[in-house]
Specification:
The complex is a heterodimer. By secondary structure, chain A is of the alpha/beta class. Among the domains of chain A are: 82 residues, no CATH class; 67 residues, no CATH class. Chain A contains 11 helices and 21 strands. Chain B has one domain. The chains are: A alpha/beta, B mainly alpha.
């Protein structure tokens, strides 16, 4: 076995509401949606009109600046509503589903006998290309490039995140097929990151056409950015692609069955869920359709619904939809109640990375964490703290400051290409100055994109 | 709680736009956030945030200062009554110290916070918590005999010139509390050295020198030095909070246990001091050079500076390796100034201020080494992105 890469820095935030390993089939949702906002920097151009009938795999819109990248419907039905926001920005395309799915047939294919171009155009036609994202910049992979390697993280460490060993059960063949496809797209390796202790699935531990890298340690060890940094660090001018396990499975299905089968296993988690567990749903499903009866409703408690994990997910309303890349829904209590001299009280029920709350005396306790921000934003004061939760050879505060002063050379020198907002989520979490670090990193990446476009 | 919340909410409109006291809305906000952690929720980025905030961080530094404050108060009384030869109870000593020290603390906070609030209103930003700590540090590094008006002048000088001109909390280059002391040290030297360490009227103290251990050594009278035990416990003359190494170790353990203070800096300063002291021991030609290196740790403001001053995260080096260099240099320079410079028997204040200025330079080189490390990595496949 290869050696274990030990991640020593980081933090597991102990939240209550982890999903029990029970898989439930979610009823067919009353509505499905694709949100262009899930894809950073995308300008969508519509291909359908309200009222059009669509199949699972019918193109809905495409990227104005990369016309080959199209986005398809996850279900068959009627494209019923185009939701627009400020300045007529397209927020959501809603599809009212038929009773059963009717699929566009893309044809069963053998990746081994296809060229790189064939595979690329096949993925694009089916609307699965957006599942491949790239570093630097953490956006949809630009077509026509060859990455030096491809990374797939096969374990999650984010708070309450789904157990991928459980998720992949019964889908091992599709996953392997997906890897076979991806291995044709790079001259380097397809790297799977596994947990040295907890990963059990053979599909992750003994794949064909892929290299297995073993990691141990707390969050963010499961972040693909951390794994890249330790296995095959990204230098200026280099390109790496990465995908989520469930998206690899969906790509595998396309080649096995010739259809866009967007079925996913989603963990419904969080302290405000009655029975946290896994559901089999179709990508883009209305959350209500399976979560409604499983929510702990209390008087005076507002609930935040998050598509994704609590650190990086997207806030959606109670009538929101599952995000394109997400395999987790988290329900947390809103922290919208003022708390009398809360900065002073011992507070047994609040979690903190520092040991300034008495709760640190109770290791193993799971917390019902709310969304209160606890303070106004302050300048950077505390030093040496962010480094403790960022297992990269990157100076977090110096990089953030470089972005704030918009110094492109310095950003580049300090490693902007290697990072993504999600890698700074823990830094943002522990920050006593309440700096909006993920937003800053995203802004920095956007500046770099602009600079080189 | 509801009642209090309702009262605050009911007066809020007066401080809002168009209200009678709209000019003071930052002050109102400061009091409001002091009373309540607001019901503000996350909007962007991480949905959950660590429960810690600046107020709590600063508050724990103040808790860590309490042992030195309490001991300092008692020691003021103890030194006074010992000097005048009166044998009084522990309570009397405490009461005397309280009467002498409390006004200094009050003046320091009042003058400093007034400036902070003024700038918050002028610049329209939230009142920052930084001064909560500085306001307590300033009294603790002054002789108890410092006139109150001097405390106020020094504090205002430190907050304006040391902090606000740079943009406020988090932007300053020099430690504000030390700057206040340095200001007095150079502006009113007569009040900062000599026979200032013991409180009492001139008649009461006639003929009692009350020299600090450092002054004793500077005048090459090593035999007059208090015992190591006394210096460790702190029953010696000195600035209000600096005398008791024991109380400071207690405070340091609070800072380290809660994760608020940097153990790395504290230990580096100690290591630097011991090293330089050891070097002088080897070439000792006078009492100051001959005094065992570890004596430096318990004399004067060494321990206080190492634990509470050098660790100020804003003015210290901000990188991991930088903190070691910064700390060691403070220790070395402190002992160097003490032993070699005849003008200033105490070196801690100047050493920290000096290294405050150099901290960005240290960080610069640490950052450059990070950049070089990144550039040295082998590049595999260049593409045009």
């Amino acid at each position: 076995m290869s050696k274990v890469i030990k991640i020593r820095k980081g933090l597991n935030i102990p939240l209550s509401g982890e999903a029990e390993k029970i898989l439930q089939l979610a009823p067919r949702a009353s509505s499905y949606a694709v949100s262009p906002a899930d894809f950073h920097g995308l300008t969508p151009k519509m291909l359908v009109q309200e009222g059009d009938k669509v199949k699972a795999g019918t193109p809905l819109f495409f990227d104005k600046y990369n016309k080959d990248i199209i986005f398809t419907s996850p279900v068959s039905g009627t494209f019923s509503l185009l939701v627009r926001g400020d300045k007529r920005r397209i927020l959501e395309l809603r599809v009212d589903p038929d009773e059963t799915d009717d699929y566009v047939n893309f044809g069963i294919k053998e990746p081994e006998s296809m060229t790189r171009e064939d595979i690329t155009s096949h993925l694009m036609k089916a609307g699965l290309w957006p599942m491949i994202r790239q570093r630097p910049y953490s956006v949809i992979a630009k077509a026509g490039m060859t990455p030096k390697s491809i990374f797939i993280s096969c374990f999650n460490t984010a708070p309450l995140s789904p157990d991928l060993d459980f998720v992949i059960k019964g889908q091992e063949a599709s996953f392997q097929k997906g890897i076979d496809v991806l291995s044709r797209l790079t001259d380097g390796a397809v790297n799977l990151g596994v947990d040295a202790i907890h990963t059990t699935s053979e599909a992750f531990l003994k794949p064909r056409n892929a290299k297995v890298n073993r990691f141990s340690g707390p969050h963010p060890a499961g972040n693909v950015g951390i794994q890249i940094h330790h296995v095959d660090p990204l230098n200026k001018g280099e390109l790496i692609w990465y995908l989520d396990v469930q998206d690899v499975i969906i790509i595998g299905r396309l080649f096995e069955k010739g259809i866009y089968d967007a079925a996913k296993i989603v963990a419904l988690t969080g302290s405000e869920v009655l029975n946290p567990r896994y559901y089999r749903v179709i990508s883009g499903a209305l959350i209500e359709s399976f979560a409604q009866k499983n929510i702990r409703l209390q008087q005076d408690v507002n609930i935040r619904t998050i598509s994704g994990d609590p650190l990086t997910g997207k806030k959606i309303g109670s009538n929101g939809y599952l995000g394109f890349y997400d395999g987790q829904i988290t329900l947390l209590p809103e922290g919208d109640q003022p708390e009398l001299i809360g900065w002073l009280t011992p507070n047994l029920d609040k979690f903190s990375y520092s040991r300034t709350f008495l709760s640190f005396l109770m290791p193993g306790k799971k917390f019902r964490h709310n969304t209160n921000i606890r303070s106004g934003e302050r300048p950077f004061v505390i030093t040496g703290l962010y480094e403790k939760v960022l297992p990269m050879d990157v100076l977090p505060m110096q990089l953030l400051k470089a972005i704030m002063i918009n110094d492109i050379d310095l950003m580049e020198q300090l490693g902007i290409y290697e990072v993504a907002p999600e890698d700074f989520a823990l830094c943002e979490y522990v920050c006593p100055s309440k700096t909006e670090m993920q937003t800053i990193i995203r802004d920095g990446l956007d500046v770099m994109i602009k600079e080189f476009s | 709680m509801k009642l209090l919340r309702n009262i605050v909410d009911s007066i809020r409109p007066h401080f809002g736009k168009g209200g009678k006291f709209a000019k003071f809305h930052r002050s109102f906000e400061a009091f409001d956030t002091f009373l309540f952690v607001q019901g503000n929720v996350t909007r962007r980025g991480s949905h959950i945030r660590d429960a810690i905030d600046m107020k709590r961080t600063m508050f724990f530094v103040i808790i860590a200062l309490v042992p030195t404050l309490l001991f300092g108060m008692w020691n003021v009384g103890y030194q006074h009554y010992m000097a005048i030869g009166a044998d009084v109870s522990f309570i009397d000593q405490i009461v005397y110290g309280l009467i002498k020290v409390l006004p200094i603390v009050v003046v320091s906070y009042a003058s400093g916070l007034a400036v902070e609030f003024l700038f918050a209103e002028l610049r329209d930003h939230e009142v920052n918590e930084g001064f909560l700590v500085s306001g307590m540090l300033i009294p603790l590094v002054l002789p108890v005999t410092t006139p109150l008006w001097m405390v106020a002048v020094a504090t205002i000088f430190a907050v304006i010139i040391g902090k606000e001109v740079f943009g406020g909390t988090g932007m300053n280059i020099l430690n504000p509390a030390l700057l206040a002391r340095a200001f007095l040290f150079f502006a009113y030297p007569a009040y900062m050295s000599g026979e200032v360490w013991i409180s009492g009227t001139a008649e009461q103290l006639d003929g009692i020198s009350g020299a600090t251990s450092l002054a004793v050594l500077a005048s090459n009278e090593g035999h007059m030095l208090p015992s190591l035990f006394d210096m460790f416990i702190g029953t010696i003359p000195g600035s209000i909070g600096e005398t008791s190494t024991l109380a400071i170790i207690l405070g340091a353990s609070i800072l380290v246990a809660t994760g608020v203070g940097s153990l790395r800096i504290m230990l580096s300063v100690v290591a630097g001091g011991l090293f330089m002291g050891g070097v002088f021991n080897l070439f000792a030609v006078n009492d100051f050079m001959a005094v065992p290196a570890y004596y430096h740790l318990v004399m004067g403001g060494f321990a206080f500076g190492a634990v509470y001053m050098a660790t100020d995260p804003v003015t210290a080096s901000q990188t991991g390796i930088g903190k070691y260099i910064y700390g060691v240099m403070i220790g070395v320079i402190t002992v160097l100034i003490r032993v070699v410079n005849p003008a200033y028997p105490e070196g801690m204040m100047l050493a920290i201020l000096f290294m405050n200025v150099f901290a960005p330079l240290i960080d610069h080189y640490v950052v450059q080494s990070n950049i070089k490390r990144r550039l040295r990595r082998p590049v595999k496949a260049q593409v045009t992105i």
